[in-house]
Amino acid sequence: MNRYSEPEKDAKGRTASGAALVDYARSILAKEIAGMEKLGETLDGAMEEALLLIESRVTNDAGARRGRLIVTGVGKSGLIGAKLASTFASTGTPSFYLHAGEAAHGDLGMIAEEDLVLWISRSGDSRELFAVSDYCRSAGVPMIAITAKPHSALARVATTVLSLPDVDEVCPNNLAPTTSALIMLALGDILAVLLMERRSFAVVDFAQLHPGGKLGRRLATIRRYVEEHSGEVPSVSPGTTIGEVISAVADGRKGCVVVLEPETGALCGIITEGDLRRAYDADMFSKRAADIMSSSPVTVAANDLIRDALDLMTERRIANVIVLDGTTVVEILDTKDLMQRGYL
């Protein structure tokens, strides 16, 4: 039975278009938000029990890895479980997803004694999960349950139960997992974030687990970028003539050159295309690099993250930043290069 008022319909019985359609969409969202708020009211001490259980199985007192958090389920719950396993793994909790149906046909061997199983089932009565539950009980593997039925057969044998509130689905027939799927996902995300916080999981840890894609590139160290892309750094000495500076800027294709002490290679400054424009006058070509350079250039360290350099360039509204390895100039980061290589 539909527990919600019917939206306005057109002559063909379809949800009306225009403003009425948007209003109906907002009412669906409001009902899902209400489900999330109900989840917040349901949270209790079982959350801490689950956290302590995961920590005791996945890490030891010295922080070394032990078991894995194995997430399982079927149907929509299984799809959510696969996402959560990925989230746990990418945020420092070793985890993988085990399809409950496949588990009963041999994949139970993936569960080791030191592991911990997190199963997800709104009803707590998914038949495919009984094989997992029976195996874990016989092998002494603890289980965390996420379910809306804390007194169900499966929940009764779980070590810890994280209860979901009884919510109405936004499905017009109150059947398709919609609101219930959303709060399952939210509860799992809460667990993952709390584990991150307790472990002090930082950006540098995240970077190690996400080397691919734009996110991974932005979280990589500048040193890695230098090793992959660095070429000859365009440079001049303080006594270089302006004509030679202009040639060096053009040849370097970075819109700037660094000014280095010829004997020690120490950084003296930077000359950008903007510096050359500002220096233009009748006496320009009688000057030297030291006369027009910026003597306090913006620098980053090779061990900093690419993300930090990008944030600095955005904050200062500059197109280039100098990379130092100790006191040695090893690269000039340029926004055009970063954009072409997928970092922006």
Short characterization:
The protein is of the alpha/beta class and 344 residues long. Helix content is 45%, strand content 15%. The chain contains 15 helices and 11 strands.
Polypeptide structure, described:
The structure is a single chain. By secondary structure, this protein is an alpha/beta fold. The protein is built from 15 helices and eleven strands. It has helices at residues 19-42, 46-58, 75-90, 100-103, 127-139, 153-156, 179-199, 203-209, 213-219, 222-229, 242-252, 273-278, 289-292, 306-316, 335-340; strands spanning 69-73, 95-99, 116-120, 143-147, 160-163, 235-236, 256-260, 267-272, 299-301, 320-325, 328-334. The strands form three sheets. It has a five-stranded parallel beta sheet, with helices on both faces. Helix 3 (75-90) packs parallel to helix 7 (179-199) and helix 8 (203-209) packs across helix 9 (213-219). The model has no long low-confidence stretch (mean pLDDT 88).
> How large is the count of helical segments?
15
Question: H/E element string?
Answer: HHEHEHEHEHEHHHHEHEEHHEHEEH
By DSSP, the count of extended strands is: 11
Shape: elongated
What's the gyration radius in Å? Answer: 30 Å
- Approximately what portion of the residues adopt beta-strand conformation? 15-25%
* Unreliable residue stretches: none
Map the helices and strands:
Blueprint: H1 19-42, H2 46-58, E1 69-73, H3 75-90, E2 95-99, H4 100-103, E3 116-120, H5 127-139, E4 143-147, H6 153-156, E5 160-163, H7 179-199, H8 203-209, H9 213-219, H10 222-229, E6 235-236, H11 242-252, E7 256-260, E8 267-272, H12 273-278, H13 289-292, E9 299-301, H14 306-316, E10 320-325, E11 328-334, H15 335-340
Parallel strand pairs: 1-2, 1-3, 3-4, 4-5, 6-7, 9-10
Antiparallel strand pairs: 7-8, 10-11
Helix pairs in contact: 1-7, 3-7, 8-9
